[in-house]
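User: I'm putting together notes for a lab meeting next week and I want to include a structural view of one of the chains we've been expressing. I don't have a solved structure, so I'd like a prediction I can at least talk through. The sequence is below, exactly as it appears in our construct file.
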Amino acid sequence: MSTETTRTLYTHPDCSYSDALRHELVSDGVVFTEIDVDKQPEMISEVLKLTGGERITPVIVEGAVVTVGYRGAG
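Assistant: Thanks for the context. Below is the predicted structure for the 74-residue chain, given as structure tokens.
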């Protein structure tokens, strides 16, 4: 059984914060699944649930923890 937390990153191609967070995760060697809501518009409803109705990216889900927006490195 794996003890690693599954991470899901919701992004949009026109969002520079999505780009920044993706780059940071890749640079840090973090394993994640990316969902681009432009390519998978059916996932927008999930983003709206996670953000309390806001159409904002990035959103990262790590287990039961949801982080909305990009907080920067460090």
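A couple of points you could mention at the meeting. The radius of gyration is 12 Å. The beta strands are 7-11, 33-36, 59-62, 65-68.

User: Perfect, that's what I needed.
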